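Issue: copy button drops trailing tokens. Both records pasted manually instead:
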Amino acid sequence: MKRFTLLILLFTAFSILAQDKFRTSTAIVNFEASVPLFEEIKAVNKLGTIVIETKTSEFVCVLFIKDFTFKLDLMKQHFNENYLESDRYPKAVFKGRITKFDVNEITDLEKEYQIKGKLYLHGKSKNIEVKAFMKKVSEGIQITSDFPIIISDFDIEVPYTIAGKIAKTVNTELTAVVECDGCDTKQIVVVDTN
């Protein structure tokens, strides 16, 4: 019986340590660049990829610019062709580290973390720090974050004639549930040593 219990404990310890990557390819990123009294400028991308390496606290988020959807096709066209030039710069990438992150401390109570890293957008990069809230949910770890993006930091040019209709700072919201990569494939193997 002692050997059986020891085997179960060893497996449990191994499975916790083996959970070194959490990921999703369905992160949702909303942005809004609306200005009062003018047409609403909003878009959503539901195909964001996030990877969290628990051993290093590394956080990576990748979005393809063309995956943003708008309520008007003409807005999407202008966004891709004139502002973000998505044929030339197809992705937005954020790479950073989660400060004081320990996957074993994540509970069903939301906890605030800081993520420091570099945002690559429109051929430019900028060091940024964002707040992220994380908690355990049945599917994995839920992450939410709100952060501003100043368009001039990334050399996104807005024609003078419409500059007053677009916010200089874009409000961005991220929501995702990252799942343990490979956790479902692990199986308990019980070996009777008697």
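Record 2 (pasted manually too):
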Amino acid sequence: MTGRRLATVALVLAAVPLLWALRWTTPVYAELTGPIPVHGAPGEWVEGRQLGAKVSGVRLAGRLRAEVFGRRIERTTSGVWAVVDLELRATVDSVMLHGARWVGPSGRAYAASRRVEGPPNLATGLTLQPGLARKAILVFELPADEVADGELRLSALPEPRLDSEIRIALGAPPSSRAVTLELSRGG
């Protein structure tokens, strides 16, 4: 009986570290049901389940100007405006871009700015059709230290769960930064 009891105690003591390791290495629910990343680079088409995208460039500025609904607007920032030039298309069905985020080197995510709404080529709000690429822009207002090595994340859903999310590593920022950037139709 004593030998059997010692074997039970030894088994329990051996199981404790194993159970502790399992507890801390098991993914949480948000990770298990999170977005399915589809990685790409600027200049190449990256296809997700619902949409495809190709980034052609990033422009930086301290001030933006645009004509919105027949009125000239100007926006300034204490950080940096990053304007992403891209092409978008739906893959199977008509879809809208609802998820557009810039993830900086710190891991913080920044949603596309709502301070600049109305330019006709703004990607948020465009209805995309299968096979028909549309040129568009996304505008982000970022702290200066979040521009380098940023990653653009795009999806048809605001918070994709068990759906694809396009992730394009943008790399080094442009060497030049405009004082004022004019946003107009087509660019």
